[in-house]
Amino acid sequence: MRMGSPVIIASERGEVGLVEAMRVLRAGGSAMDAVEIALRAAEANEADHYVGVGGLPNLLGEVELDASIMDGATMAAGAVGAVTGFPHPITVARAVMEQLPQHVMLVGRGAERFADECGIPRGTTLTDEAIRLWKEGLTPDSLAEAERTQGPGEVAFRRSALARLQSMEPPHRHPWGTINVVALDREGRLCTGVSTSGYPWKYPGRVGDSAVIGAGNYCDGRYGGAACTGRGELAMRGHRPDRRRRPARRPVPGSGLRERAGADDGPRRPLPRSGAHALPHRRRPARRRGHGDRIDLRPDDR
After folding, report:
1. pLDDT for res 171
2. In this predicted model, what pLDDT tens digit does every residue of 265-281 receive, in sequence order?
3. For 238, which DSSP code?
4. How far apart (Å, rounded) are the C-alpha atoms in residues 42 and 85?
5. Residue 283 confidence (pLDDT) above 60
6. 178 is catalytic
7. Phi, psi of 162 (to 5 degrees)
């Protein structure tokens, strides 16, 4: 790879932002800007129910978002978890990195307070389509298997809750999951970014590997960048220091770009080539019902 040639890659469904991000890189923009722009486009894609606006809610019907970003040149990083009311958590994560250098991650209300202080716009993240899919996953038919596994008493409480979650299949058969973007700019600066709405029907407050630097996202300009998609808990549990790790013989900036698939994520899927499938994306605005990020359950819905 010759220096001066910008590169940007993304995981599945991240192609919606690659065209605009590549324009930024070719104009001399930074890898950090390109990654944020690409992920903001993915977060705004209401047809994607695993990132940003339209993301599937947690068990309480609330949309909680996670994101992280890391600079391969300085090793600086920022992350947010369980954020509600902000359509673009990647922008909040970048603000954490740039404005709170003594911090890496903010979660929940603290992250939302910080975003307000930074003047980052709030917005609605719950859509009608997400509400429909969320409810379908909680119907008696969908929970029949879980109901049969419930046992009496407090001892069985957690097992029954786990069985309920395990009985819920993601409502899509097409590719789904976290979106990752890795960019290399003309100056050889490398950046990785990750954004997700997390696993559908997750327990409120759950934060996966996407917001954890070193588990779901890592970037070192000397060697490369990596990001995960799949079950975040497995990525975090499987992450451990490896004393046998040896540095690359020739640490070339920007070399070794790859996406590391999450454990137990099934067959690994190849990343699209730079610019591949980056077609203009059209989306129709969805009507929304509820209070921005929370499903408003009516009496007949309970």
Report:
1. 62
2. 333 334 443 333 333 33
3. H
4. 17
5. no
6. yes
7. -65, -40
